[in-house]
Amino acid sequence: MFNLNNLKQEPELDEEESSVLLSIGDLMSGLLMIFALLFVTVLVQLKDREEPRRVIVGTVVEQMKGNNINVNVNPETGDVTIQDKILFDENSAELKPAGKIFLRRFIPVYSRVIFANKDFKKEIARVVIEGHTSSKGDYDTNLELSLLRALAVSKFIFSNELNFPTKWELRTKVMAAGRGEMEAKQKVDDPSDRKVIFRFQFRGENFSEWYRKNQSLQQQNR
Fold first, then answer.
1. How many independent structural domains does the chain possess?
2. Which of 17, 88, 183, 218 stands 20 to 30 A from 211 (CA)?
3. Where are the transmembrane segments (predicted)?
4. What secondary structure letter does DSSP report for 88?
5. Mean pLDDT, to the nearest integer, of 118-142?
6. CA distances from 192 to 41, 85, 133, 162, 222 (A)
7. CA of 102: how far to CAs of 69, 82, 93, 117, in Å?
8. First CA to last CA across the chain, in angstroms?
9. Domain of 87, in residue numbers
């Protein structure tokens, strides 16, 4: 016998299934909206973070040119490169008199940029002074020499021989490092590889991330 009750129940089941599907669809739409908002928020934060860094780098470039300081400034990172012949004699980690004169001109201007305003000061977490050598000579000797040169520059900056208004603030940000021939052109004694670099590590970058970023940029610029 045909049961009329069955006809009444089937539409009710269809309605329940439709209701469940609509709920899942609404949930997915809500999640997608949340992810979209988070993505936009991250993009805005990254843009806000990049803007002061570009201003800082641009200010470094302007100040070096404006004060006729003979250095090479990377327009993307703000790295300041000083050829070692300005600072040291060959195979020596003792600053030359001419090197000290150069640092007396360069450091006050460079430090003034870092502490130009509270935003710059906050954004620049660290200044790394790196010594570099060419591939000429023994690897271990080059590594040691590069570190000793970076330390010599750092010690001179904070010695009694050099005075500038932001000296003690700068001390809290500086770190010396030796890179030796690790970033030199392979098997080529290129004088341009012998240098001291002042590098910014910006706020929010842990050291490993900062190091990888700089390694990548150096490879691109070669």
1. 1
2. 88
3. 20-44
4. B
5. 93
6. 43, 10, 9, 27, 12
7. 8, 10, 16, 25
8. 88
9. 50-221
38 in any annotated domain:
no
203 CB-near residues (< 8 Å, 6+ apart): 122, 123, 124, 125
Contact yes or no for 180/145 (Cβ under 8 A): yes
pLDDT of the residue at 184: 85
- Dihedral sign (CA 210, 211, 215, 216): negative
- pTM attached to this predicted model: 0.72
CA distance 127 to 52: 16
> Residue 29: inside a domain, yes or no?
no
pLDDT tens track for 174-195: 999 999 998 887 777 888 899 9
Helix/strand/coil for 4: helix
Residue 111 lies in a domain: yes
Does residue 91 lie within any of the structural domains? yes
* Rounded Cα gap, residues 180 and 138, in angstroms: 10
DSSP bridge partners of 49? none
List pLDDT tens digits, range 93-117.
Answer: 999 999 999 999 999 999 999 999 9
Could you give the CA distance from residue 66 to residue 105 in angstroms, rounded to a whole number? 12
